[in-house]
């Protein structure tokens, strides 16, 4: 679901802003997009209501990223017993004009898959970013993967 729609209270909006600022502090050329999904019926059917989706766009195709746009999807689990929401993973995908170039998921094995992978340096920075995102939403440090 678009991050702009998920910012329903001050705490959640603040965490979303922290994620955006964290990404932009590492990659200042990126422009954030809190509404990466269109608001049409076909797209609405595909959107996961238990996620926050944030897009980032670079001014051109980045060689080190092997993409021009990045989609970050933070996935949540709603604990009805404790009336709380917990981040269970982060999925990141890089896109160029040819479509999806690569993907990484913290839900699986933290490995990049795709046709054109980002550089090892970008990959490590992105994994560190994902760790921080999970910490931000869960308020507890996570072990290194």
Task: Quote the average pLDDT.
Answer: 82
Radius of gyration: 15 Å
Number of strands: 6
Order of helices and strands: HHEHEEEEEH
The rounded distance between the terminal residues' Cα atoms is: 27 Å
Biggest β-sheet strands, sense, barrel: 6 strands, antiparallel
Proportion of helical residues: 25-40%
Report the β-strand fraction as a percent range: 25-35%
Low-confidence stretches: 140-145
Q: Order of strands across the widest beta sheet?
A: 1-2-3-4-5-6
What coarse outline follows from CA principal-axis ratios? Answer: globular
Helix-strand makeup class: alpha+beta
Oligomer: single chain
| Number of spatially distinct domains | 1
The count of helical stretches stands at 4
Description:
It is a single chain. It is built from 4 helices and 6 strands. The protein has 145 residues and is α+β, with helices and mostly antiparallel strands. The chain has one domain. The protein has a 6-stranded antiparallel sheet with strand order 1-2-3-4-5-6, covered by helices on one side. The chain is globular, with a radius of gyration of 15 Å. It starts with a helix and ends in a 7-residue tail after the last helix. The model is unreliable at 140-145 (pLDDT under 50).
């Amino acid at each position: 679901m678009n991050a702009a729609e998920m910012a329903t209270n001050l705490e959640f909006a603040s965490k979303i802003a922290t994620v955006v600022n964290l990404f932009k502090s590492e990659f200042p050329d990126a422009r954030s997009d809190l509404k990466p999904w269109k608001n049409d019926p076909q797209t609405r059917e595909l959107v996961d209501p238990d996620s926050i989706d944030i897009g980032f766009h670079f001014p051109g195709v980045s060689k080190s990223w092997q993409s021009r746009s990045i989609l970050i999807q933070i996935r949540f689990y709603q604990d009805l017993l404790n009336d709380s929401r917990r981040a269970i993973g982060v999925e990141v995908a890089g896109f160029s004009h040819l479509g999806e170039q690569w993907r990484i998921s913290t839900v699986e094995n933290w490995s990049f898959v795709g046709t054109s992978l980002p550089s090892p340096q970008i990959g490590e920075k992105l994994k560190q970013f994902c760790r921080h995102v999970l910490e931000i939403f869960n308020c507890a440090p996570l072990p290194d993967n």
